[in-house]
Amino acid sequence: MLPRPLIVPFSPTDCDIAAKWAVLAERGGVSYVRETGEERDTTLSEDQLTGQLSLLAGSRLLTGDIEAYRTARAYAFEQPSGSHPTPVRGSDVCFKGSLLRGPQPLWRYRLSVPPKEMRVGWTYALVLIPDLIVPLLVPGCSTFALIIGCATVRMFPDTIAGSGVFKGKYTLQVPQLDVIAPSHGIQYASDALIAALETHLGVREDERWAAVQPRWAHYATQGVTVVTV
Q1: Does residue 42 have a pLDDT over 60?
Q2: Cα separation of 211 and 194, whole Å?
Q3: How many other CB atoms are there within 10 angstroms of residue 133's CB atom?
Q4: What are phi and psi of 17, to 5 degrees?
Q5: Is the pLDDT of residue 128 over 90?
Q6: Of residues 44 and 180, which shows the higher confidence score?
Q7: Pairing of strands 136-143, 123-129
Q8: Quick one: three-class SS letters along 129-150?
Q9: How far apart are CA 160 and CA 79, in angstroms?
Q10: Which of 57, 197, 55 is nearest to 130 (CA)?
Q11: Which residues, other chains included, contact 38 with Cβ-Cβ below 8 Å and sequence gap of 6+?
Q12: Mean pLDDT of 4-11
């Protein structure tokens, strides 16, 4: 079954804060997503803003506000690498953002974690970022054990991407993720909101969330796992 996504409301101020930190984060560093320096240069601003918005969403989900995000970013800015894997210092939950592009169906997006970023016992959550007009979606998460293939391997034979932008990374599609439990006032997205987003993106009717949900029913042999982060 497709995991029911959470909806994280954002204000214009939140977006301005994320944009500010995205600009600061553009100073040097490396990318485990982009293959070449030239490719990274052309997408740097977009990648950084996507990453900052996903971290900000994580802060709201884990704590109810963005103060933890501010603290983590200030700490990261003081470090040589300029990075911090979680929006809340001391947490073992990492949020990975993916920008929604055109009419690609929501369920085709992937959670991608480079081997160098994998940590035993951690949980990795995917944040889908449409644009600054609508709130963000957190469709699901996965544990370290599932990502590296220590659980239900027969269901997900292609955990490590062999080509494309995610080549060499551990990847899972949205249908392979666990549901995240609501917390701090953040609730599941309604069918109407998901449909409105799909209309906004131009997703084909037969590729929409409600239309493909039955296709993934055979994966739910053990029921739906709900993860509290």
Answers
A1: no
A2: 12
A3: 8
A4: -65, -45
A5: yes
A6: 180
A7: antiparallel
A8: ECCCCCCEEEEEEEEHHHHCCC
A9: 30
A10: 197
A11: none
A12: 89
Rounded Cα distance between 192 and 196, Å, is: 6
pLDDT on residue 64: 93
Decide: helix, strand or coil at residue 171: strand
158: which 2 tokens?
């292609």
217 phi, psi to nearest 5 deg: -60, -30
Distance CA 223, CA 138 (A): 20
| 148 vs 32, higher pLDDT | 148
Question: Maximum distance among all alpha carbons in the chain?
Answer: 48
pLDDT at 2: 86
Q: How many CA atoms lie within 13 A of 129 on its CB side?
A: 26
Contact indicator for 140, 179 with CB cutoff of 8 Å: yes
- Nearest CA to 190 out of 216, 209, 217 is that of 209
Please give the average per-residue pLDDT across 187-215, as a whole number: 92
Report residue 191's pLDDT band, with 50, 70 and 90 as the boundaries: very high
In eight-state DSSP terms, residue 177 is: S
pTM score over 0.85? no
